[in-house]
């Protein structure tokens, strides 16, 4: 197949949702359609149910054995689909933000009863800011939930999206009768007695036909006709360009658990979702069909087996083809590296691949060369943008609890930071090390992993910081900046890259500082 045809047939996306909305169930059903798995229950949930570290460890251990869950690839009607895993738990939001830099589109899952939830809001905001095309799937229609119009309103308001339904539910909960597929213009009836059967549906194509009245009853049929009239009156016609530009979001309804409405979603997705998109680097925009390979690391997965401390760096291919055993430039280190066993991911396994195309993800074994955001090329010095660090919200001093193991501690902390587990800061005034994280769970994770993977022990000490912000001075030589550095000396630190960071102890002090020093900018991400 031609290089450009390989690009055209790829769709790389992520499913985002608040925990419990049905992301894992939907993923599994998509894989079943692709024939990538043959039974339900094959996809491991990455859910942290109790919010406990032990849960996290268990998940990581399982993943260590089957890292394949990070990327699930399958073929459907000649299209190669790559699903990137995005943890729903809020403590791992940063992981998800970073994964979103590697997707070309997303599917947002919303629980029909709970509506738009907190995590969904945050993740959708990130996608919206980057104009990532989004399709919304309203799940659990087999349960009582919110009225469809009410929900569409809520999605528009809370998520600041402009929606247009491409399917519409007929009834809900116990009375759930099926879906009118606006996209394909047919009715799909939900008639499964057990409500668990796959594709136990009837199709009729004419909305006006009496057959509809016979099938769902006159009242429901009239109701549906009225509702669809309203849909056409209120919502814009679907427009693919608007969707691809992030200006319009189609909505589907269904029940992932019952495998209802999933095929419709998948068929539409395959036909409208974007092929690999161009990506901005610091110097230029790189197009997928450029001949030379470029790619970037968006995730590093540690091997949880202490005997093999190697890691797997996940590279998204942006342009060209990635070939096994060919030397590529590691731009940050300025040296060439060759990879003898790059992994491609499938639903239940990973395999060594000789060649991969734009949109694909390859996993490279790594002994500590990579950190998140690193770029690989065929020689061009180029750095991809868009993988910033975010302002952490939890802070603790980290102390060495075993003086004999200080080297191990240093190495462990260094590698964990490269993996993006947390951020390390060095206070300017006393050189003490501070760890900042997005979620509180990470502190335990770090402690556990330092001990089990590096043989090092650490303790923490509390530190009262509300937020860390990256400092940008208009003129670093100005009196204003000098004054800021003198007055705030106690609150200044450097991040791992040596960028200056201001630790505000409260929202109030951050505001006051901003007012006092108007020529200085305080950024909540490291990339500005
Ligand atoms: P997540 O990955 O987004 O966190 O959600 P997940 O798929 O694990 O689904 C959360 C719960 O919602 C699961 O139940 C799942 O079975 C259920 N669910 C998913 N889709 C539907 C649906 O269409 N209808 C109904 N009624 N339920 C749905 P659980 O009891 O938490 O887990 P499990 O023990 O059944 O796996």
Automatic annotation (TrEMBL):
InterPro entries, sorted: EF-G-like_DII, EFG_III/V, G_TR_CS, P-loop_NTPase, PrfC, RF3_C, RF3_dom_3_sf, RF3_GTP-bd
A Pfam family per the record: GTP_EFTU
Main location: cytoplasm
SUPFAM superfamilies attached to this UniProt entry: EF-G C-terminal domain-like (SSF54980), P-loop containing nucleoside triphosphate hydrolases (SSF52540), Translation proteins (SSF50447)
Record's keyword annotation contains ATP-binding: no
Keyword annotations of the record: Cytoplasm, GTP-binding, Nucleotide-binding, Protein biosynthesis
CDD domains: RF3, RF3_III
Residue ranges occupied by any Tr-type G domain in the UniProt entry: 8-277
Domain of life, source organism: Bacteria
Coiled coil, from the record: none
Binding site for GTP: 17-24, 85-89, 139-142
Subcellular location: Cytoplasm
Keyword Cell cycle part of the UniProt annotation: no
Family statement: Belongs to the TRAFAC class translation factor GTPase superfamily. Classic translation factor GTPase family. PrfC subfamily.
Xref: NCBIfam families: prfC, PRK00741.1, small_GTP
Its biological purpose: Increases the formation of ribosomal termination complexes and stimulates activities of RF-1 and RF-2. It binds guanine nucleotides and has strong preference for UGA stop codons. It may interact directly with the ribosome. The stimulation of RF-1 and RF-2 is significantly reduced by GTP and GDP, but not by GMP.
Protein name: Peptide chain release factor 3
Organism listed in the record: Gillisia lutea
Gene: prfC
């Amino acid at each position: 197949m031609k290089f450009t045809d390989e690009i055209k047939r790829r769709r790389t996306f992520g499913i985002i949702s608040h925990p419990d909305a049905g992301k894992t169930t939907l993923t599994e059903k998509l894989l079943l359609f692709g024939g990538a798995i043959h039974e339900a229950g094959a996809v491991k949930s990455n859910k942290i149910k109790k919010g406990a570290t032990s849960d996290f460890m268990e998940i990581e251990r399982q993943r260590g054995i089957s890292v394949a869950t990070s990327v699930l690839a399958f073929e459907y009607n000649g299209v190669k689909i790559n699903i990137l895993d995005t943890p729903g738990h809020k403590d791992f939001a940063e992981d998800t933000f970073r994964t979103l830099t590697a997707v070309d589109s997303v599917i947002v899952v919303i629980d029909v009863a709970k509506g738009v939830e907190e995590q969904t809001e945050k993740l959708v905001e990130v996608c919206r800011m980057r104009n990532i095309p989004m399709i919304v799937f309203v799940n659990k229609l087999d349960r009582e939930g919110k009225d469809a119009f009410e929900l569409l309103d809520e999605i528009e308001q809370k998520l600041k999206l402009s929606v247009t339904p491409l399917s519409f539910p007929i009834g809900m909960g116990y009375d759930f009768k099926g879906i009118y597929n606006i996209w394909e213009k047919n009715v799909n009836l939900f008639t499964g007695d057990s409500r668990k059967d796959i594709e136990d549906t009837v199709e009729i194509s004419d909305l006006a036909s009496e057959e509809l009245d016979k099938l769902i009853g006159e009242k429901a049929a009239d109701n549906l006709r009225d509702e669809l009239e309203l849909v056409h009156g209120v919502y814009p016609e679907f427009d693919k360009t608007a969707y691809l530009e992030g200006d319009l979001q189609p909505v589907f309804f269904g029940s992932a658990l019952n495998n209802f409405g999933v095929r419709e979603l998948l068929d539409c997705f395959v036909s409208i979702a974007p092929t690999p998109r161009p990506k901005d680097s610091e110097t230029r925009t790189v197009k997928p069909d450029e001949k030379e390979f470029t790619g970037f690391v968006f995730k590093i997965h540690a091997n949880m087996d202490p005997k093999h401390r190697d890691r797997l760096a996940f590279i998204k291919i942006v342009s060209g083809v990635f070939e096994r055993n060919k030397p590529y430039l590691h731009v940050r280190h300025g040296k060439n590296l060759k990879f003898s066993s790059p992994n491609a991911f499938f639903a239940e396994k990973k395999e060594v691949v000789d060649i991969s195309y734009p949109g694909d993800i390859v996993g490279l074994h790594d002994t500590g060369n990579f950190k998140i955001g690193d770029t690989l090329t065929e020689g061009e010095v180029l750095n991809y943008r868009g993988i910033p660090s975010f302002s952490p919200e939890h802070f603790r001093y980290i102390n060495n609890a075993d003086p004999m193991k200080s080297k191990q501690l240093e190495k462990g902390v260094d590698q964990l930071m490269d993996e993006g587990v947390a951020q390390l800061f060095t206070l300017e005034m006393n050189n003490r090390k501070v760890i900042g994280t997005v979620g509180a769970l990470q502190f335990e994770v770090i402690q556990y992993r330092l001990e089990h993977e590096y043989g090092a022990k650490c303790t923490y000490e509390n530190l009262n910081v509300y937020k860390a912000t990256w400092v940008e001075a208009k003129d670093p030589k100005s009196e204003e900046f000098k004054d800021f550095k003198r007055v705030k000396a106690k609150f200044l630190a450097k991040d791992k890259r040596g960028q200056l960071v201001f630790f505000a102890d409260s929202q109030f002090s951050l505001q006051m500082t901003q007012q006092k020093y108007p020529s200085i900018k305080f950024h909540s991400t490291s990339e500005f």
